[in-house]
Amino acid sequence: MAKVVLENITKRFGQVLAVDNLNLEIQDREFMTLLGPSGCGKSTTLNMIAGLEEPTAGRIFFDDEEVEHLPPEMRDVSMVFQNYALYPHMTVFKNIAFGLQMRGVPATEIRQRVAVVAKKLGIEDLLDRKPRELSGGQRQRVALGRAIVRDSRVFLLDEPLSNLDAKLRVATRTELKNLHYDLQKTFVYVTHDQEEALIMSDRITILNRGRIQQVGTPEEVYNHPRNEFVAGFIGSPAMNFLPGVLRQEGETLQFHSPAFTYTLPSPLLPSLSRHARRNVKLGIRPKDIRIQVPEEEAIGKAEVLLREPVGSDLYLQMKFSDAILCKVRTDADNPLQRGDVTTFAFNEQRLHFFDASTGDSLLV
Ligand SMILES: Nc1ncnc2c1ncn2[C@@H]1O[C@H](COP(=O)(O)OP(=O)(O)OP(=O)(O)O)[C@@H](O)[C@H]1O
Ligand SMILES: [Mg+2]
User: Fold this and answer.
1) For the chain, which domains are there?
2) I need a surface site. Which of 18, 22, 269, 345 has the fewest CB within 10 A?
3) Half-sphere exposure (CA, 13 Å, Cβ side) for 340?
4) What is d(CA 179, CA 122) in angstroms, rounded to the nearest whole number?
5) Residue 298 C-alpha to ligand 1 middle, in angstroms?
6) What are the per-10-residue average pLDDT scores of the chain (364 residues)?
7) H helices of the chain, where?
């Protein structure tokens, strides 16, 4: 059992501020994902939890034990690296057994434990092979096996699926989720893939440039992004951002953009009225733009620039009233063609507003 707490953690590499004053509490048995673009500090954070990097400042606790000065082997963590880091000259059995041997676990117990893990991961038939005789997916299982054969307090996984092809990745993430459920351990999982994070995690920590942008459940970060970065990073295709100004008009509040003027739904007034005259961005996901609506419901007109069929859905790249580009999701059999013009409206419960200069959400 272990809760992992990072307190004011900072890591510098020379001039590079890789992790900037990070505060995070990962609950016992939680599946926590560190998500963000390349270079945002995910691996550095994971390595500090593992003990492979020492923080420049700050403290790390496993439950109530302060660990940042302990070497990795004293922390009781298991790590799966992005490149698997298997021992090439050892068989699969030896690769999995090695950590136990180093700890002096008796041979019969090792055989037993390796057998259990190999069965769980479906690699019983591969135990005599060397890593070079395995596919990428099989190697990935061996790396996982090596991690879970030890009964560690915390499991740390650094982009373990990134070397797999798309189909195997989808299958393996389901298995990993099941594995977490089976093991009932604290998992800290690193990925740059927002879909993977949404599907697998109990909670997600979104990082950018070494700083936490938001911590929340998949539903929270998707539905209530705290800033423009999170809003744009989570969800695919990405949220549309339309620049404009908020203006009070009598009792109503309007969003004025170069393309259209939109009277905001009244439930938004309590949060947004105080931002009148501010430059903002209206955020709306492709699925929350309705097209081909009756004239009386329409906000304006939009022209189809491009059709992007993806099988189950059709995405349309559209131009609103000659100015703003937007992506819109519609039914796969929608007959609209390039050059067609139609009406549009927004799903009013799904609007987001961000301060144009800070990117902060004006709604949360
Ligand atoms: N040993 C090091 N020396 C100098 N700079 C480093 C070192 N390790 C990481 N950095 C820098 O720290 C920042 C964070 O790196 P980190 O590896 O944590 O990113 P990441 O989020 O894991 O990215 P990726 O998705 O590409 O793996 C980057 O700017 C990186 O160049
Ligand atoms: Mg990394």
Assistant:
1) 4-233 (3.40.50.300), 240-355 (2.40.50.140)
2) 269
3) 14
4) 12
5) 47
6) 94 97 98 97 97 96 94 91 86 94 93 91 92 88 90 92 81 87 94 96 98 98 98 96 94 93 94 94 97 95 96 95 86 97 96 97 92
7) 42-50, 92-102, 107-121, 136-148, 166-183, 194-200, 218-223, 228-233, 269-272
Residues 6 or more apart from 184 whose CB is under 8 A from it? 29
Sign of torsion over alpha carbons 59, 65, 70, 73:
negative
Residues 187, 336: Cα–Cα separation, whole Å: 46
DSSP string, 168-212: HHHHHHHHHHHHHHHHT-EEEEEES-HHHHHHH-SEEEEEETTEE
Supply the residue whose CA is at minimum distance from atom 29 of ligand 1: 39
Distance between Cα 41 and ligand 1 center (Å) = 6
> What DSSP letter does each residue of 55-114 carry, written as one string?
-SEEEEEETTEE-TTS-GGGTTEEEE-TT----TTS-HHHHHHHHHHHTT--HHHHHHHH
Contact 328, 291 (CB under 8 A): yes
Task: Tell whether ligand 1 has an atom less than 6 A from the beta carbon of residue 206.
Answer: no
